[in-house]
Specification:
heterodimer; A: 435 residues; alpha+beta; 10-stranded mixed beta sheet; 22 strands; B: 459 residues; PmbA/TldD fold; 2 domains; 7-stranded mixed beta sheet; 6-stranded mixed beta sheet; 9 helices; 26 strands; 20% helix
């Protein structure tokens, strides 16, 4: 154990002891130390290098079923002592709730992933190469904001049941936001993001970056969809949160405890097309940017959320589980992996009589009953099995509960974002309206 | 936050430098269906420096605020600027020199309440809702308070200290209709700490009663008819029109990044009824929801008239964009956390009121919608915007009709604004939202009701 790690563990242990001494029946301490190096391109030029250090200390105290939580980023004794005093005051003020608890004892474990240090020269070279390649391949593209960062973090989670987890992680993140312009015309902003264990590949060759840059140039000239019709929408991987965001939101504590989830009693039932299987795999090697420990103090495990259309489980925390009597989830969600389908992307397009290839969705918060509507951005009209033209001012509306049942195709091709692995998904029966 | 006198550190500055000590303090209490699910406080603070060398920026931050860490942070930021500048001399030259000093502290003068008293306050509201409206399927009452305290010193000699707090209550009420939930969302609060913003739990009971009435009508509501419609956007909604649809397209970094507004300066972009201002700290004799006096680059914050009677007149600037466009910085450079660099952000963006009465505006519509509340919104380089609509009504033959279910409106802002034919004489402000752009940040937004034509989603 290095001196630095030993120091962090001692701070966490002292904080835990102080909480118990101050009267907590149960206590949890989460401590994270992180260092981040970040290069930024603004308007096509590498303009900013950032180095940031941060600490976080989260204290949880439960006293007579009353919960108190406090967060701070100072580790000095005086700050920690004050935080312990404050969190007990917060707990004493809470309404008692038997749902609050901490995780039971599990064997102590250490987890390691990714490099310990950034390669700053490689980061610089990759960013300069990215600018040059974009200028050459996509001369009409304006790079609005491009960020390449490396974050190294050491996290410790200890609780009064003897849980002791330590995670040491290094990860590169890349995010790109851009548009294209020619004369007075500009395309819609588009963007994507990736997580990577290393910088082995050129940035433009990762994920969907090059494809989206090419599409931006195509989208300088757009055409509104004419009229209103019911058609198919092929949801691109970059737009996947459009689908899975609603589903997973409905499976979490908030919607299940409040009773407002349309899926509250659907575990074991068919809620989607049998061709859809959705997994959460935070500890899998295939996910570069996963996690090993849940926020409520459990070692995370991979899980299947939807298996061939059947809902296999909810995404409840320990609190959500105790409040509802339903099973606690094996992880904290995210790290989504969707099984590949049996058709190629081009076959999906060929199967559409009239519809939209949707790369980005800009929509209002969906209703709890699943109703949604919003604009199809960076998207294309499909007619008679062919991509016809980029569109604008075109609205997509429907209901997510129905949309999951109306998935008609999933592509063989998938995109590895480092934090998720996702295919193209075809959904029928959505309302598409233009001018 | 112990206010640190930063002036002694100016001797460390060798290039243009900003030094900032900042602390953000959050308080959150949430009741979901009577369960006290959140009861927490958190504090995030530290020191940061940003250094500029001929077009290259270096930034560094540390959570520790001490003499050693300040020296280290200034050195690290300087090293970072040099790392870029030695590899790629951008040759941009010096930034505009400005100097401003300010001291503004909105800390309450009242005795601070203990956490138990605040939890009891929220619980009393929750208990009231539970007993008064037993038909509700679910209810959420949440309190969210944020204090942002900053001290900024620049190599130009600017020095400012500010403590800008906000406190908001959020309500989500839900009824079950045919086995599915129908929900309404409302917030209230404003500038100030909890003790200054909220009086007693009962003071919000009338607002909750009004929301329940809307919810009952929404439960019996219909889906909007998708298409381009004449709509009255209520004053409560106009702020997000000002912020999302127009404001973002005029942030100078977005303009340089390809916004359609780049080619519209001094051109007609809206009806002559539209004047849009990004207020720095006060409007119509009152403090704005998010007052900014000196921004995080040390520039005095001044009101910026973005659109004057339909003509685009100004973008929103930091020092670098002002230099690029050959104009003055407008005081819009703001950072959220101590570890964030200042970005060009709106402050309190509002459409100015007109002369029409809301009832006359509704009466003037034969077939359209009266849209009251937004759930969220997004902007684009093309000025094509989208807002989620959580509360609205049909207008048939000049009269309000059935409520509508959740929907979305959209349009190309600079086209929609040209369709504005009436602007009400009432003004509504809010500062409950967070704007997202690399970092979140509190923003104020406001405006009157406007009559225009927009696309509405539905079935």
């Amino acid at each position: 154990m290095t001196r630095q790690v030993e120091n962090h563990v001692q701070i966490a242990k002292r904080s835990l002891d102080a909480l118990l001494k101050a009267g907590a029946d149960k206590a949890q301490v989460g401590l994270t130390v992180s260092e981040r190096h970040e290069m930024n391109i603004e308007t096509g030029e590498l303009s900013l290098l950032r180095t940031t250090f941060n600490n976080s200390l989260h204290l949880t105290a439960i006293k007579q079923a009353r919960l108190g939580q406090i967060g701070l980023n100072q580790f000095d004794s005086a700050s920690v002592e004050k935080a312990v005093e404050d969190v007990m005051d917060i707990a004493n003020g809470a309404k008692p709730d038997d749902g609050h608890d901490i995780s039971e004892w599990q064997p102590a474990r250490e987890f390691y992933r990714g490099p310990e240090k950034p390669d700053l020269d490689a980061m610089y070279d990759r960013m300069k190469s990215f600018i040059a390649t974009v200028q050459q391949r996509h001369p009409r593209v304006v790079l609005r904001q491009i960020i390449l960062s490396f974050t190294r973090s050491s996290s410790y989670l200890l609780n009064s049941n003897g849980v002791d987890f330590r995670t040491f992680k290094g990860i590169y993140h890349f995010s790109a936001m851009f548009s294209a312009q020619e004369g007075d015309k500009v395309s819609s902003f588009n963007g994507t993001g990736l997580a990577m264990k290393d910088l082995d590949r050129e940035l433009i060759d990762c994920g969907t970056v090059d494809m989206l840059l090419k599409q931006s140039s195509e989208q300088i000239e757009t055409y509104p969809v004419k009229g209103k019709f019911v058609g198919d929408v092929i949801v691109a991987p970059d737009c996947s949160n459009f689908l899975y965001g609603f589903l997973t939101g409905m499976l979490g504590d908030g919607a299940i405890i409040s009773g407002t989830s349309v899926y509250k009693d659907k575990v074991g039932e068919l809620i989607a097309s049998p061709i859809l299987s959705l997994h959460s795999r935070p500890v899998s090697e295939e996910i570069a940017d996963g996690y090993f420990v849940t926020g409520d103090g459990y070692e995370a495990k991979d899980s299947t959320i939807v298996d061939q259309g059947v809902l296999k489980g909810l995404l409840l925390s320990l609190y959500g589980s105790r409040k509802t009597g339903k099973e606690r989830a094996a992880n904290g969600g995210g790290a989504f992996v969707v099984d590949p389908g049996d058709r190629s992307f081009s076959d999906l397009i060929k199967s559409v009589k009239r519809g939209v290839l949707m790369d980005r969705f800009s929509g209002g918060a969906p209703s709890k009953n699943g109703d949604f509507s919003g604009i199809a951005k960076n998207s294309y009209l499909i007619e008679d099995g062919e991509i016809k033209c980029p569109i604008s001012e075109s609205m997509i509306s429907g209901n997510f509960v129905e949309a999951f049942k109306n998935i008609t195709g999933i592509s063989r091709e998938r995109v590895d974002y480092g934090y998720a692995i996702l295919p193209w998904v075809a959904v029928s029966g959505l309302t598409i309206s233009g001018k | 936050m112990a206010v640190t006198d930063l002036r002694e550190y100016s001797q460390l500055f060798h290039s243009y430098t900003e030094l900032r000590v900042q602390e953000n303090r959050f308080l959150r209490v949430t009741f979901v269906k009577g369960n006290n699910t959140t009861n927490s406080r958190s504090t995030t603070g530290g020191v940061s420096a940003r250094v500029y060398e001929d077009g290259s920026w270096g930034f560094a931050s540390s959570p520790e605020v001490s003499r050693d860490s300040i020296i280290s942070v200034v050195k690290s930021a300087t090293d970072n600027a040099e790392f870029l500048n030695t590899r790629q001399n951008r040759g941009k030259g010096p930034l505009p020199v400005v100097k401003a000093c300010s001291e503004r502290d909105f800390t309450t003068k009242k005795p601070r309440l203990r956490q138990k008293e605040i939890v009891d306050f929220v619980r009393e509201i929750d208990d009231h809702i539970a007993s008064k409206y037993p038909r509700l399927q679910s209810r959420t009452v949440a309190l969210d308070c944020l204090d942002m305290e900053k001290t900024v010193l620049t190599s130009d000699g600017s020095l400012s200290h500010s403590m800008i707090p906000r406190a908001y209550l959020f309500f989500i009420l839900s009824l079950e209709v045919d086995g599915k939930p129908v929900e309404i969302f409302k917030s209230c609060g404003g500038l100030g700490q909890f003790e200054d913003v909220f009086d007693s739990p009962s003071s919000v009971f009338p607002l909750i009663a009004a929301q329940y009435e809307h919810l009952e009508r929404k439960a019996e509501g219909v889906h909007a008819d998708a298409g381009v419609k004449t709509c009255i956007l209520d004053a409560e909604l106009a702020g997000i029109l000002a912020h999302e649809a127009i404001g973002h397209t005029t942030e100078a970094d977005i303009v340089m990044g390809g916004s359609v507004a780049a080619r519209l300066m001094d051109k007609e972009v809206a009806s002559p009824l539209i004047t849009l201002v990004d207020f720095a700290n006060s409007a119509q004799g009152r403090d704005c929801p998010v007052p900014v006096y000196v921004d995080d680059e040390g520039t005095e914050a001044k009101d910026t008239v973005i659109i004057d009677k339909g003509i685009l007149k100004s973008f929103l600037h930091n020092k670098e964009s002002a230099k690029h466009f050959g104009t003055e910085p407008t005081g819009n450079a703001r950072a959220f956390q101590f570890s964030d660099e200042p970005l060009i952000r709106m402050r309190n963006t509002a459409i100015l009121p007109g002369t029409s009465k809301l009832e006359d505006m509704i009466a003037s519509v034969d077939d359209g919608y009266y849209l009251i509340r937004s759930s969220n919104g997004q902007a684009d380089s093309t000025s094509e915007f989208m807002f989620g609509i959580g509360l609205g009504y049909e207008i048939k033959n000049g009269k309000l009709g059935r409520a509508i279910r959740d929907t979305t409106i959209s349009g190309v802002a600079y086209d929609v604004l040209k369709t504005v034919s009436m602007v009400s004489d009432e003004m509504h402000w809010t500062g409950a939202g967070m704007c997202g752009k690399k970092q979140p940040i509190p923003v104020g937004m406001g405006g009157p009701a406007v009559k225009c034509r927009v696309s509405i989603g539905g079935r």
